[in-house]
Amino acid sequence: MLSLAGLMTEKEGFSALAMGNHALARAMAEAGTAVITSYPGSPTPEIAEALLAPPEKNRGYRFEFAVNEKVALEIAAGASLNGHPAAVFFKSVGLNVAADSLIQLPLMELPGGMVIILGDDPGANSSQNEQDNRWFARMAYIPVFEPGSPAEAYVMYKEAAALARERKAPVFLRLTTHVCHARETVKFGPLPAAHDWTPRFDAAAGPYVPITTAVFPLKKRALEKLDAWAAYGEKSALNAVYKASATGTRKLGAISSGLPALCLLEAVRAAGAPVDILKLGLSWPLPEKLAADFLASHDEVYVFEELDRVMEVELKALAYGRGIGCVIHSRRGHHELMGEATPERARASLAGAWPNLFPASEQRRTLPPAPRLPQMCPGCGHRSAFHAIKQALPPGAITVGDIGCHSLGFLPPYGIGEVLLSMGHSVSTASGLALNNGSRKVVAFVGDSTFFHAAMPGVVNAASRDSDVTLVLLDNGTTAMTGHQPRPGNGEIGEKLSLPELLKTLGVKFLRECDAYDQPKLAAQLKEAMEHQGFAVVIARHPCMLKFMRDRRRANPGLKPQHVAVDQAKCARHYICAAEFACPSFVRHADGSVTVNTELCIGDGSCVQTCPAQAIGRDK
Fold it and tell me: Which of 115, 385, 444, 515 is the most exposed place for a label (fewest CB within 10 A)?
């Protein structure tokens, strides 16, 4: 099987089984994309995994992680302004962070072109919402390519990149979780010649300063480009009609894009139903003539899409405006506006319109999966910190969480982090909760990567106002939740930065720090911080143990695993280890005994101090 490095550096064409994200990374290399940037976020991190696989000297592109999505987008935009083909990728909600600069891009001439890859997340598998970023395209005048499979992602990226460069414009390539993580055999092409890095920025090609009345000619140009995209969509092979093999008394059709379109195809073919399908690969701007002709040539059409009624609204408006009498069916209940598309969901949706063509399928008898909450890894410093913090918090304390592994602190048994909005919000939201609040302590939490991403302005504000907030900065030294990407200041990229010194520079006067495994010290420091009138910061530091143990095993392949064990003679069955500290390594049995699952335990020993009977010790 070809390695990731081989996938990215093989000079000639070949075929290989590839994950959608990996196929997309190869497409970037084949398209001659010179500058690629990102802020890590699911479902897109494996794109970076592939891009980073070859040694830097063997790459025909420059890739870098940025401190947040806005910075990543701006670096890519700057590269494109200099004539270098550019791309940026991040998760769905990352577009919110990048939006301030994103909205300006269609007003500009981008000589290198720019592909903005969105990892949308129907089902909220790894996000705080299911936002549908197709709305951003309408607001920003940016065309949308929607692949439904790894092979389509590969093909569409190359076409999108070429067109973006030709038209000096930004484009969206909208992925969803299943497209990112599905695997398919993809036929890859050769790599191009080395890129010419000659800087080509020309201010005369602008203007690049959209202020006052200068905005209007720029907007006019953006709208004209949008018309050109619509004209291209009318003839593009990415927008195609799939004729049904069966025929019926009424002409039936369906319109969809991306993964939902493939789900439709499977459902229609499985049922042998006489339903033609218009699949839109370049889904916006809507190819109005193609869509209108399809509507006019069918008696009834079903619009099937994931999440919001974006395409449905536009198609109904188109039919009304052109006087087309086609009956347009769509999803009915609120539940159909949530979650991921599947062939079964497509069949059920079509059955709502045409029950005779899509009878209920035979239900397979399956056992429901065992309920299991997400949880922190064995040895996680956040678990140790939360156990200590929960004991130190006074009754009625308000806790504000943030994005990262520590978001899991909200789940049982910790119940810490009762409010969650977005990355870096915790300090600012906590500051609002603390206003004229003399009776309830407010404690905010943020991780080290999120601190650099978006929390620093909130810290500056809280420090300058001396908000009566205690901030616990949980420092595990990496961007852990998305796969241990480097964060600014940890020394992997550039110089190492001292968080305490940086916090002092930002105006923090009260500052304490300790190892998150030192639970008594952390609890004492938190109490001291909460007693302080004004803004206080406690740094609870411990390396991500998942990364720490992987690094140790790589450095020492013969490393023998270590574990803790429960002394059954001492165990008083308080169950703090299993129920309150809640390390998944502890197993509570039907007879009341507690043992350690050595397949999970890493022997870190952070649990030893939690047992009042002193029944937990290192396994000899």
Answer: 515
Give me the CATH code for the 4-235 domain, please.
3.40.50.970
Query: How would you classify residue 86: left for phi > 0, otherwise alpha for psi between -120 and 50, otherwise beta?
Result: beta
**For 432-456, how does the pLDDT look when each residue is reduced to its tens digit (9 = 90+)?**
999 999 899 999 999 998 999 999 9
Q: What is the pTM (predicted TM-score) of this model? A: 0.91
| 461/444 Cα distance (integer angstroms) | 14
Position 2 confidence tier, pLDDT thresholds 50, 70, 90: confident
List the domain boundaries for the chain.
Answer: 4-235, 239-353, 381-549, 560-618
Distance CA 175, CA 161 (A): 15
The Cα-based distances of 317 to 135, 277, 320, 328, 334 in angstroms read: 16, 20, 5, 11, 21
Token pair, residue 523, equals: 């609890």
CA distances to 442, 462, 465 from 432, in Å: 10, 10, 11
Q: Return the CATH number of 381-549, one of 3.40.50.620, 3.40.50.970, 3.40.50.1820, 3.40.50.1110.
A: 3.40.50.970
Per residue in 13-31, pLDDT (tens digit) is 999 999 999 999 999 999 9
Place of tokens 């929390």: 455
In contact, 174 and 135? CB cutoff 8 Å: no
CATH number of 560-618: 3.30.70.20
Please tell me the class of the 239-353 domain. alpha beta
The 10s digit of each residue's pLDDT in 226-255 is 999 999 999 999 999 999 987 777 899 999
- Please report the pLDDT score of residue 596 as a whole number: 95
Tell me the two tokens of residue 498.
């001292």
Compute the distance between CA of residue 578 and CA of residue 26 in angstroms, rounded to an integer: 45
Task: Spell out a b/e string for 448-458, using b for 16 or more CB atoms within 10 Å of the CB, else e.
Answer: bbbbbbbbbeb
Rounded-to-integer distance, Cα 243 and Cα 475, Å: 56
- Comparison of pLDDT for 590 and 485, the residue scoring more: 590
Determine if the peptide bond prior to 192 is cis (ω within 30°).
no
Across 490-499, average pLDDT: 79
User: Matching CATH topology for 239-353 and 381-549?
Assistant: yes
Query: Cα dihedral angle (530, 533, 539, 540), rounded to 10 degrees?
Result: 0
Cα angle, residue 556 at apex, residues 550 and 559 outer, rounded to 5°: 85
